[in-house]
Amino acid sequence: MALKKQNMKFIFAGLMLGTLTASMDSTIVATAMASIISDLGGFDKLMWVTSAYMVAEIAGMPIFGKLSDIFGRKRFFIFGLVLFMLGSILCGMAQSMEQLILFRVIQGIGGGALAPISLTIMFDIISLEQRGKIGAMLGTVYGLATVAGPLIGAFITDWLDWRSVFWINIPLGLAALILVAKFYRESPFHEKEPIDWQGSILFVAAIGCFMVALEMGGHLYPWNSPLILTLFGCFAVLFAAFLYVERKVPAPILSFSMFGKKLFAMSNIAAFLSGTSFIVLTVYIPIFVQGGMGGSVVNSGLVLLPMMLATIISGQVSGYLTKLTSYRNIMFGFTLIFIAGVALLAASDAHTPQMLLILYMFIAGFGIGASFSVLSLAGVHHFGVRQSGAANSSLSFFRLFGMTVGVSLFGVIQRHLFAERMEESANVPQHLLDDPRGLLNPEARQSIPAEQLETAVKALTDSISQIFLWDIVPAALALLAIGMMGNERLIEAKARRANKKTPR
Question: Which of 2, 292, 299, 504 has the maximal Cβ count within 10 Å?
């Protein structure tokens, strides 16, 4: 498709703004989470504020990807952006935690269209030789999203209120909408394929059962209760049915034959595991600072800032290194750095100097930043223009699925560890055991007797430190997957230019 160079700049600006808006949403909400809980209550539903968005985003991603192949990318990018902005407005108007979770679902459905369709449009309109630049740009966008999100969320929450962290999406979304609508003219050619509604429904139902079981198990219901066992059983049956259907339908939402390429398969596994590990830090560091150290929302955002700045730096550095060595070598080295950072965080407590905590966050951020750029390039390495959209959607799906599982799974573990440590102490009041949101509110902390506050703070920080220790497990597994990626590397000028039909 021939496009004027000037138009390309506007199109890329619009697509990057759309991706930035959706990517920033999780981080901007993370630093406001304590204020949301303080206002709306529902500490036991904390993880669903993030999980609801991610589950909806994941469910919408393959469906929007397939629809954009059939009917065109522009209309579904715009539809997703409008739906995302509508969800943002509603989230800012929520009067209860239940309403907020419902509106986050609407946001997530819209967000499911933005990142994969943005990347697909980029690969549609650029040459293969420019993929290295795209990788660096992606690292910058994801890094900027995680840098800007905590700071914007912290300052808005402290100086305005938590509702405004959702409304900030509107001006960014409108700018992206205007740029893409005005300057992007897509090709009228689209591959006509049937929509895999069977697979989509089975997939959404399976993931829903799995996530609900993780959220309620060990908290509202025992793990061996009939309800939880039934949910896990339904997940197993529905997911098995999904796999069966995907092998039979002519146009599956996930093309399993693509996983025959070892680099593609291992990149997706690494994206899943690194996403699982990374999201734990972005969710629990603000709570650690506010609840454990008595910091404000701004302090929690500033502690996250070094980690997010480090992701930008490592995204640029790793993008450059793709010209010099293999994807595997780059990812292996950076993942080792990430594991070292997580291990240092696991050794932290309420008395750890904030400067040391900032250093640990920087190390972890520098290690994880490469995954945003390098894995995106590795995922599309073996595929031409028509296949890059499917490859991108798959990688985005597995990264977000890993984040969703990480939030829910580690949320269950943290609640269990916190309750266990609180119950070990006889001098902790029952109201803190039932609803510990007072630890996140500076005013409420002042009304808690010093001895009780010290006990509760130690229980909170110990539980989060243990979470960081467990977080090393998915990071180590990611390292194993990276070790099996192979020796492929980005060769810009002589890369394969085949435009084969997407494998089924």
Answer: 292
Residue 14 within a domain: yes
> Can you state the angle between helices 385-423 and 97-125, rounded to 10 degrees?
150
CA 438, CA 107: separation in Å to the nearest integer?
29
Whole-angstrom Cα distance, residue 371 to residue 124? 23
Q: Total structural domains in the chain? A: 1
The tokens describing 153, both together, are: 């969320």
Q: How many CB atoms lie within 10 A of CB 439?
A: 24
pLDDT digits (tens, 9 = 90+) for 457-500: 777 888 888 999 999 999 999 999 999 998 888 764 344 544 44
What SS3 state is found at 186?
coil
- Please list, in sequence order, all residues whose beta carbon lies within 8 angstroms of the beta carbon of residue 462, skipping any fewer than 6 positions away: 349, 417, 421
Position 280 in a domain:
yes
Report the C-alpha gap between 478 and 149 in whole angstroms. Answer: 26
The answer as to whether 40 is a domain residue is yes
- For 221, the 3-state DSSP assignment is strand
Name the residue range of residue 264's domain: 5-183+249-483
Write down the pTM of the prediction.
Answer: 0.79
DSSP-derived letter for residue 43 is G
Supply the CATH number for residue 24's domain: 1.20.1250.20
